[in-house]
Design goal:
single chain; mainly alpha; 16 helices
């Protein structure tokens, strides 16, 4: 396997102690080498962290087996490269990654991928920076290639997939506003995440709604929930938020800030609507009221959302006791999460 590092070049000037084959950084001690690299990276010594990896890869023969034995260390090397290979300090981090460092990381990822040495964290480390740099097309391609890999692709799909990677894929796809079939691609990624977690797509989306809303925005999150009417979706979201607060209270857990903020915001909207106001101010107000999920345009009827009330015999969420809603809103304000 040819590496972007250009192995074989001498680096006598380095002041980093060679890990040495069979020593602390030997392939059988990949977790220990990764820990050493991480400690150097946290100290802003990215070039030294990266040099440890290069030396170990070289001493291990720089072959496919070396990449497979250095999976965790490869992730640390990718992170060091993305920080600029020694940028550290105030210029470190994803926001400081230059185009050349991102391209170098992509080259290392490609080398590791061909050797079968990648993990979900390998792809996630690079994809997160691509998203932050606005290179969403590349991030989406990278995540989707990992998520939907097959053995014939030279990747092991079971080792390349993770819920975190699926969420990164959805974040990247969500930013591709002109992408044909964008909602379908989001649902495919959600389906993959649900499979990894051992649940159904609809239930996974429902349980991750607040995370998805933060990553994708209100419109995409509600369409994933099949809340196609942007006006009624306010009631749907309030119902989901109240359900979340009740469940957390029963289980002794702290509710998510997004759910509490939604209760405060949407109860205010509901009270204005009952007084005859326009109920404006919703963060989805800019959505086209006639917008529908593109999958509906193909003639399919969307399933009724999990937890939706029956058309007859059920209780309209809007008839819920206002006092109960205001109690939940008061709880949100007391926790300081209503901002």
């Amino acid at each position: 396997v040819k590496s972007f590092f250009g192995m074989g070049e001498t680096d006598e000037g380095s002041n980093v102690t060679d890990s040495g084959s069979g020593g602390e950084g030997s392939p059988t001690n990949d977790p220990l080498l990764a820990a050493r690299m991480r400690s150097l990276r946290f100290a802003g010594r990215d070039a030294e962290s990266l040099d440890l990896f290069v030396r170990e890869l070289e001493s291990s023969g720089h072959d496919d087996a070396a990449y497979r034995n250095l999976k965790r260390s490869t992730v640390e090397a990718l992170r060091s490269i993305l920080r600029g290979g020694g940028g550290g300090g105030a210029g470190g981090g994803a926001e400081g990654a230059s185009s050349s460092s991102v391209d170098d990381a992509m080259a290392l990822l490609s080398d590791s991928e061909r050797a079968g040495g990648t993990t979900p964290e390998s792809y996630a480390a690079v994809a997160a920076v691509l998203i932050e740099r606005g290179r969403r097309n590349e991030a989406a391609d990278l995540c989707e290639a990992a998520l939907y890999a097959s053995p014939s692709d030279g990747r092991a799909s079971s080792s390349s997939s993770s819920e975190g990677l699926a969420l990164l894929a959805m974040e990247a796809i969500g930013g591709q506003k002109d992408r044909p079939g964008r909602m379908r691609a989001l649902r495919n990624a959600a389906d993959d995440a649900a499979r990894i977690e051992g649940t159904e797509q609809g239930e996974w989306i429902r349980s991750r709604y607040w995370t998805l809303k933060g990553k994708l925005g209100t419109k995409d999150a509600r369409l994933l929930m099949w809340w196609n009417d942007p006006v009624r979706s306010r009631d749907n979201e309030l119902e989901l938020a109240l359900e979340h607060v009740r469940r957390c209270k029963a289980e002794g857990l702290r509710p998510k800030g997004g759910a509490l903020r939604s209760i405060v915001r949407l109860t205010g909207h509901r009270r204005r609507r009952r007084r005859g106001g326009d109920g404006g101010g919703d963060d989805d107000a800019s959505d086209d009221d006639g917008a529908w999920d593109e999958e509906d345009s193909e003639g399919r009827t969307p399933p009724r959302p999990v937890g939706a009330k029956a058309a007859n015999g059920g209780v309209d969420p809007r008839s819920r006791d206002v006092a109960q809603i205001l109690l939940a809103a008061g709880e949100a304000r007391r926790t300081g999460l209503d901002g």
